[in-house]
Design goal:
By secondary structure, the protein is mainly α. The protein has one domain: Growth Hormone, Chain: A, CATH 1.20.1250.20.
């Protein structure tokens, strides 16, 4: 890997790492802010999920900005909103201000994933994108590890507010590094006005192939991140009976497993394609295994907890391969909007799922701060049913992907891209 692509990978991965830490930091903060503010499960779910609402709400304009101004400037600038948001959250003494802070954080990091994928698509051949996208997700997954045992340990000697202000500094540093050192590449395609670029987003939303590619992955990713960033800890304590430090350790195991899964599936995808299994089908198999893992957890299969939650992490991130499938269907000047549109839907679902789980849990009365197992099983059972329904749509025969090539850049040229040649 030459120096420029390596720089692209490292800098944009750092941005996504920050995004991931913000995503799950309330997992460690939850017991503390719940006691301090007297929150119910529904209140906690709403507060935490506002990150995802802000993230989702910014996706469409973020995609347009990425395609118009490029990943470097947009990511560096937007991260300053995230720094302001975590500062507001850490200084707040009421739920209202904390909600504003979470919303700002979500808006600020909304471009991190889409920018990383767009920057990678600019500097790497499409055949390597499944692996490179997986590596970015793995670096981000370190954030999922950090909000487990490491954060729990830090909170034994530092307040959650002090952690917030440390995150302000970290975010500003990453923004500065991106601004100063991330390379830029001009698109060969003429950049239209912002209004014209929003029309390109509308074409993506009207694309049957887009919805076919994203059908299963948006639901599985929504469930995975909704649970990982908040409710996994409650499940481990309330249903599995783990002590807080043991539950935090399993959250870190899940994070490490997700990192391994992202890299492993990304590397294996190319090998499977050479053996005749398409990236679309390979992604579907991984997501099906994720659903199976959830069923084993719910049924309390007689397997080690570490193994079950490692499998949850390994298969939970496989839906990320859908971004690489999108990159093969849409032309380069639409990749930013394609990525952010898919992310928009995922994060709207995370927002809804986190609130939904909290609402379902709140139907039951907690005893000693713990909700009964039946409450958790009911909530997760609904999520599994939604994933099974989306899986049916994903596997139903369809002709909309027939125009998508299995390879691009020097192998097979995309027959389907002609339809987008006149879209800005």
């Amino acid at each position: 890997m030459s120096s420029t692509p390596l720089r692209v990978f490292l800098l944009f991965s750092a941005g996504y790492f920050v995004s991931y830490v913000f995503r799950g930091v309330n997992l460690g903060f939850a017991p503390l802010i719940t006691r301090e503010l007297g929150l119910t499960a529904a209140n906690l779910g709403l507060l935490t999920s506002l990150y995802f609402l802000g993230f989702a709400g910014a996706q469409l304009p973020a995609g347009v900005l990425l395609d118009h101004y490029g990943p470097r400037r947009v990511t560096a600038g937007m991260l300053l909103f995230a720094a302001a948001g975590i500062g507001v959250f850490g200084a707040a003494h009421g739920v209202g201000a904390m909600m504003v802070g979470r919303l700002l954080i979500g808006v600020g990091v909304s471009v991190c994933l889409g920018a990383a994928f767009k920057a990678l698509a600019q500097h790497f051949p499409v055949s390597r994108l499944p692996l490179m996208n997986g590596l970015v997700m793995a670096v981000g997954g370190l954030g999922g590890v950090v909000v487990g045992s490491p954060l729990t340990w830090v909170l034994t000697f530092a307040s959650w507010r002090a952690v917030c202000f440390a995150l302000v500094v970290l975010t500003i540093v990453v923004a500065a590094l991106l601004w100063m050192f991330a390379p830029e590449r001009k698109e060969a395609h003429h950049q239209a006005s912002l209004v014209g670029q929003f029309k390109g987003t509308w074409h993506i939303l009207r694309s049957a192939a887009f919805w076919k590619i994203g059908s299963f992955s948006v639901v599985t990713q929504g469930v995975f991140y909704a649970m990982q960033s908040l409710w996994v800890g409650a499940w481990l304590r309330d249903v599995s009976g783990f002590q807080p430090h043991d539950a935090a350790a399993l959250v870190s195991v899940l994070g490490f497993a997700m990192m391994a899964g992202c890299v492993g599936f990304g590397a294996a995808a190319r090998s499977m394609e050479r053996r005749g299994l398409s990236l679309y089908a390979f992604c579907g198999v991984g997501m099906a295994l994720f659903v199976v893992t959830q069923l084993l957890i719910m049924l309390r299969a007689p397997l080690p907890a570490g193994l079950l939650w490692a499998a949850y992490g390994i298969f939970g991130g496989v839906g990320i391969l859908s971004y690489a499938v999108l990159a093969r269907h849409f032309p380069p000047h639409l990749i930013g909007r394609g990525n952010t549109t898919l992310t928009l839907i995922i994060f709207l679902l995370i927002f809804g799922f986190q609130i939904g789980v909290g609402a379902v849990l709140s139907i039951w009365t907690p005893v000693g701060g713990h909700y009964p197992p039946v409450a958790h099983l009911t909530a997760w059972g609904i999520l599994v049913a939604l994933q099974l329904a989306s899986a049916v749509w994903y596997v139903l025969p369809s002709r909309v992907l027939a125009k998508s090539p299995s390879h691009i850049h020097g192998e097979h040229q995309p027959q389907g891209l002609q339809a987008y040649s006149d879209i800005e």
